[in-house]
Design brief:
Order of helices and strands: HHHHHHHEHHEEHEHE
Radius of gyration: 34 Å
Number of helices: 11
Distance between the termini: 48 Å
Strand order of the largest sheet: 2-3-1-4-5
Structural class: alpha+beta
Number of domains: 2
Number of strands: 5
Largest sheet: 5 strands, mixed
Length: 350
């Protein structure tokens, strides 16, 4: 993931060049109206059209580009106030430049940067006013007002675009974090918490609309022996292999999760018992035929229990108990098989 600190200079550079360039146009209109001398024009040109590129170059060549860019941002604020003094404090462009300068500091997201810029701005105001003879001409002509409009519009749009991109990036990162929070790290299936949320929603939908749904509970036969004989690393690979088979056999509308240990649970939405049983048999057959790349001699099997959603299931726990009861039937019948019932005996809720 890109480092935001290292990207600060690249992110600020186009905004600085645009903002100071447009600001220079406004200052130029004011200087033209008051017939300013060559020194004022050169000062304006250096600040508005040369400094943005110098600042970028200083940041790129610095051993610590982030700290160099912070210094550049502080210099930006001071130079903006120098432009204000060149205009003899012409009211509208002066307020505009100072305000946009402060906005730029705030939108960097660097805590307290705007406050750190105030001493430099105050010093620049005193030095610039002294250089220009403490002239005071706050009146703003229509020409200057019109020159300010592009600054207000383009600066606002550019800052909004940067903010929009930042919000979108943060939103994508939050979505990724939410996905990671819901996923079991070992198997890539949903973790138990998220699976339970989806299973409860499916059961509620069945109660409300009679939409069919089936719950498949499965675990690996003799998984403890696999761990004891081959080690937990091989056991983990067995879990991952089973999870891959499960994912390859469920639809996007289904929800497969790791229930705990070597036990998995699958909610098949909108599916009747015959379809769910076919899915379970397909998974069982693929598991039985699987050969691990690291352990080609190791074969394992799985047992499964399938239960349809029923109005007698007053809670997810009752539905899970019904599927568990079928799973125990499969194990009692010799393992490596699927047991299913459309009208399960209600297991007591403990």
């Amino acid at each position: 993931m890109p480092n935001p600190k290292r990207q600060l200079s690249r992110r600020v550079y186009p905004l600085r060049a645009l903002g100071m360039g447009l600001g220079g146009v406004v200052v130029g209109v004011v200087l033209w109206e008051r017939n300013a001398g060559l020194a004022a024009w050169l000062c304006m040109a250096a600040i508005s059209f040369v400094w943005p590129h110098v600042a970028h170059l200083l940041s790129r060549r610095s051993a610590d580009p982030y700290r160099a860019e912070i210094r550049n941002l502080l210099v930006d604020s001071a130079l903006a106030v120098v432009l204000v003094t060149l205009m003899h404090f012409n009211l509208l462009p002066s307020v505009l430049l100072v305000t946009l300068t402060m906005v730029d500091k705030i939108t960097t997201g660097i805590r307290g940067l705007w406050a750190r810029s105030l001493p430099g701005m105050a010093g620049a105001a005193v030095a610039g006013a002294a250089f220009n003879g403490f002239q005071w001409a706050p009146e703003t002509s229509m020409s200057v007002i019109l020159a300010c409009l592009p600054v207000m519009v383009l600066h606002t749009l550019s800052v909004s675009l940067v903010s929009y991109r930042l919000i979108r990036r943060v939103s994508r990162q939050n979505q990724l974090l939410d996905e990671l929070r819901r996923i079991d790290a070992l198997t890539g299936l949903y973790d138990r918490g998220h699976w339970q949320e989806q299973a409860e929603a499916t059961l509620h939908r069945h109660h409300a609309t009679d939409e069919p749904a089936c719950l498949v509970m499965l675990d690996i036969d003799h998984f403890k022996q696999i761990n004891d004989q081959h080690g937990h690393t091989v056991g983990d690979e067995v879990l991952r292999a089973l999870a891959r088979i499960v994912l390859s056999n469920v639809r996007a509308t289904d929800c497969a999760g790791r229930y705990g240990g070597d036990e998995f649970a699958i909610v098949l939405r909108g599916m009747h018992l015959d379809g769910a049983t076919a899915v379970a048999h397909r998974i069982r057959e693929q598991v039985q035929a699987l050969q691990l790349h690291e352990m080609p001699g190791l074969q394992f099997t799985t047992s499964m229990g399938v239960a349809t959603a029923d109005h007698r299931h007053s809670s997810l726990r009752a539905w899970t108990n019904a599927a568990d009861a079928e799973l125990y039937q499969a194990k009692a019948a010799g393992r490596n098989r699927v047991s299913a019932s459309s009208m399960p005996d209600m297991a007591p809720v403990v």
